[in-house]
Design goal:
This protein has about 220 residues and is of the alpha/beta class. Helices cover about 20% and strands about 25% of the residues. The chain has one domain (about 5-20, about 40-215): Rossmann fold (3-Layer(aba) Sandwich), CATH 3.40.50.
């Protein structure tokens, strides 16, 4: 029998608190958001024609990609990174980038005061307990013509008896308007909307072991 814990206990676990997945990842190049997502966040934001476009990056690590974007985007763009541990070495010019905000908080406990044109979570859902809850909340924060893109491992979502819930979860996400790119393990939603998924969060297993990335990850259990 797997011993499940709640999200408050999960944030203190070694798998979550010591995550280094996004500490070194930049905006473009070999180890980058553009490569992992299959599109350029910078180009996406530059194409926005509305007033004050914004990018929210969940599980943002050091926020290097956000800082690089802030240096290349016009004034008025708001860039927000949220990470449980927060940046250990903030960008040295962070004070000169007023459009950049790096927030140290648990994703499950945080909510924005605005909508965003782009919301990303690059290999961050792997360390959350209620992954489906985070996905649904992010969809509600998205602008009507915005994009949400996050890496998601369906095999990390399980039933209380330990069996896989991957197929019904992916089917429910697709029915809600999400696209899932299996090769990239990438979940994409174009256009913000309320999302209700037919699953009830039961708890997390921080000892689930490595996922497709080869790194230890969290198992999320739903009824």
């Amino acid at each position: 029998m797997v011993r499940l814990i709640d999200d408050n206990a999960l944030t203190a676990s070694s798998v979550v608190a010591n995550s280094t997945m996004n500490r070194e990842r930049g905006l473009s190049g070999v180890n980058s958001y553009a490569r992992e997502l299959g599109f350029s966040p910078l180009a996406w934001l530059l194409e926005r024609t509305g007033a004050a476009p914004g990018w929210l990056d969940l599980c943002s690590g050091e926020g290097r990609a956000l800082a690089e974007a802030a240096r290349r985007l016009p004034e008025g763009v708001e860039l927000t990174g949220v990470d449980l541990v927060g940046p250990m070495a903030p960008p040295p010019d962070a004070a000169a980038l007023p459009q950049l905000r790096l927030v140290t908080a648990a994703v499950a406990d945080w909510a924005p005061g605005r909508s965003y044109d782009l919301i990303t979570c690059v290999h961050g859902l792997h360390y959350l307990g209620d992954q489906l809850g985070a996905i649904a909340r992010a969809a509600s924060w998205l602008a009507p013509d915005g994009r949400f893109a996050a890496h998601f491992d369906p095999e990390s979502v399980r039933r209380p008896d330990g069996s896989s819930a991957a197929r019904p979860v992916v089917a429910a996400l697709r029915a809600a308007g999400f696209g899932y790119q299996a090769r990239r393990h990438l979940l994409v939603l174009d256009g913000g909307r309320p999302v209700e998924l037919p699953f009830v969060y039961a708890g997390a297993d921080p000892a689930a072991g490595p996922n497709y990335t080869g790194q230890p990850a969290v198992g999320s259990y739903y009824r």
